[in-house]
Amino acid sequence: MDFRIEDISPEEISRRLSVVEPLTESVRRLIDAVIRTEVDDAELIAATERIDQVVQTLRSRQRDGSFGTPYTPTFIGMPWGNAAVGARNAIAPPLQIRTESGVAECEMVLGAAYEGPGGCVHGGVAALMLDQLVGEAASTDGLPSFTGTLTVRYLRPTRLGALSARAEVTGREGRKTFVHATLSDDDGVTVEADAIMIAPKGFALPGGEVLPHPATAQEEN
Ligand SMILES: CCCCCCCCCCCCCC(=O)SCCNC(=O)CCNC(=O)[C@H](O)C(C)(C)COP(=O)(O)OP(=O)(O)OC[C@H]1O[C@@H](n2cnc3c(N)ncnc32)[C@H](O)[C@@H]1OP(=O)(O)O
């Protein structure tokens, strides 16, 4: 896994985000426009050429592989390629997650790009968002965790549009954290999930050094 260290200040992080977030938003508008446009074929062909030119410009200098998750030496994470919350990832649902001890929550507006059954949210997208949320809830209080098991129950179809989601830790047992999460529309809960999150034994840094995980340290003492 890529946990490289990048020694930049919070101000530099904000500066980079202020440049890249408008680009990501622009690409989100592009994705939505491609799905919903009704212009004629000649316009579609011309648009393809213009978009290919932009892609060529962006590819003139790019990193190998995925973006990874760089951390500052003070463990500010930059998961900017992340499929659920990546600031550089236009396919990520636009989630702005707030966390406090054992809780993660957010509101979002899902449009045409997140459709499964006609007019409704794709079940995989619902699971993706809830997976991210349970991960963030479990990782508060300094215990970063992976999803071991995620059980999702779709109670009724989730209409595209304004939604909210919430995850809350319900218990901890050694390296395991249990989390309950819900996705809701104006009429109440549409999807609920239960997760068993596992704190890995340690984090391997690029040089091979393994940082002990706080939960592991507790087990060993
Ligand atoms: C500073 C950083 C801040 C970070 C903020 C981050 C926010 C992040 C948000 C990210 C959100 C995105 C989230 C994502 O997308 S995370 C990506 C999706 N998840 C994965 O890729 C995980 C892949 N699996 C693994 O890496 C390992 O199998 C893990 C680490 C899960 C366990 O391997 P490990 O070798 O450590 O396990 P162990 O054998 O010592 O067992 C330990 C205990 O756990 C129990 N167990 C084991 N497996 C499972 C299971 N599958 N379900 C339920 N329970 C399981 C086991 O019975 C035992 O319990 P007990 O016998 O002790 O009672």
Automatic annotation (TrEMBL):
<keyword id="KW-0378">Hydrolase</keyword>
<dbReference type="GO" id="GO:0006631">
    <property type="term" value="P:fatty acid metabolic process"/>
</dbReference>
<dbReference type="Pfam" id="PF03061">
    <property type="entry name" value="4HBT"/>
</dbReference>
<comment type="similarity">
    <text>Belongs to the THEM4/THEM5 thioesterase family.</text>
</comment>
<keyword id="KW-0963">Cytoplasm</keyword>
<dbReference type="InterPro" id="IPR006683">
    <property type="entry name" value="Thioestr_dom"/>
</dbReference>
<keyword id="KW-0276">Fatty acid metabolism</keyword>
<feature type="domain" description="Thioesterase">
    <location>
        <begin position="118"/>
        <end position="191"/>
    </location>
</feature>
<keyword id="KW-0443">Lipid metabolism</keyword>
<dbReference type="GO" id="GO:0016020">
    <property type="term" value="C:membrane"/>
</dbReference>
<keyword id="KW-0966">Cell projection</keyword>
<protein>
    <recommendedName>
        <fullName>Acyl-coenzyme A thioesterase THEM4</fullName>
        <ecNumber>3.1.2.2</ecNumber>
    </recommendedName>
</protein>
<keyword id="KW-1003">Cell membrane</keyword>
<dbReference type="InterPro" id="IPR052365">
    <property type="entry name" value="THEM4/THEM5_acyl-CoA_thioest"/>
</dbReference>
<dbReference type="InterPro" id="IPR029069">
    <property type="entry name" value="HotDog_dom_sf"/>
</dbReference>
<dbReference type="GO" id="GO:0005737">
    <property type="term" value="C:cytoplasm"/>
</dbReference>
<keyword id="KW-0809">Transit peptide</keyword>
<keyword id="KW-0472">Membrane</keyword>
<keyword id="KW-0053">Apoptosis</keyword>
<dbReference type="GO" id="GO:0016787">
    <property type="term" value="F:hydrolase activity"/>
</dbReference>
